[in-house]
Write a structure and sequence with these properties.
81 residues; mainly alpha; 0% strand
Length: 81
């Protein structure tokens, strides 16, 4: 994706997101490092982990925040932000 640029791949990535919805497996988008829906899910997961840590700060919650943040940063779109 990086070699051709995100805009060149936008149509294919949007189509892949649509296929996940059509197949009713959109909840698995987070497994991709390329799909826009994956980035959305990863950011949402990070926000939920951060919210849980703020509500109940402990080492386990902090570990979840770090894991979720790493997942966001591994996504190809994170480098473009």
């Amino acid at each position: 994706m990086r070699a051709t640029g995100p805009e060149a791949m936008r149509g294919a990535l949007d189509r892949a997101d649509s296929l996940l919805n059509e197949l009713r497996i959109a909840e698995f988008a987070h497994l991709s490092d390329l799909l826009p829906a994956s980035m959305d899910q990863r950011v949402r997961s990070f926000a939920e982990a951060l919210d849980a840590h703020v509500a109940t700060p402990n080492a386990a919650q902090l570990s979840q925040v770090e894991h979720a943040a790493d997942a966001v940063l591994r996504h190809a779109l994170a480098a473009l932000q």
